[in-house]
Design a protein that fits this description.
The protein is an all-beta fold and 118 residues long. The protein has no helices and eleven strands.
Length: 118
Amino acid sequence: QVQLVESGGGLVQTGGSLRLSCAASGSAFSIYTMGWYRQAPGKQRELVATITTGGSTNYADSVKGRSTISRDNAKNTVNLQMNSLKPEDTAVYYCNARHVIFTAKNYWGQGTQVTVSS
């Protein structure tokens, strides 16, 4: 079992930056692929970025070049630095942990709201 707690959301103007953090507790953090997803009102949850246990990253095209995902296995944290924010980035952002072998072990945080004003 993994518990995930996000922080760092808020209200920011277009062009601004935010850093989201996710603190994990419970099972061994280093054997989980970590990710950030988001869900805007009326839309499906979508991938923002993922980072594997080895540090390989993957980004949605919509945030590529503007966002950086990182993890600290010693501190059990994963961060998402978002720059040049746009109104279309407005959403609830969720932290995700997926076991690298037993993929049914898939956990979500409660979400943190990001609102980008125009």
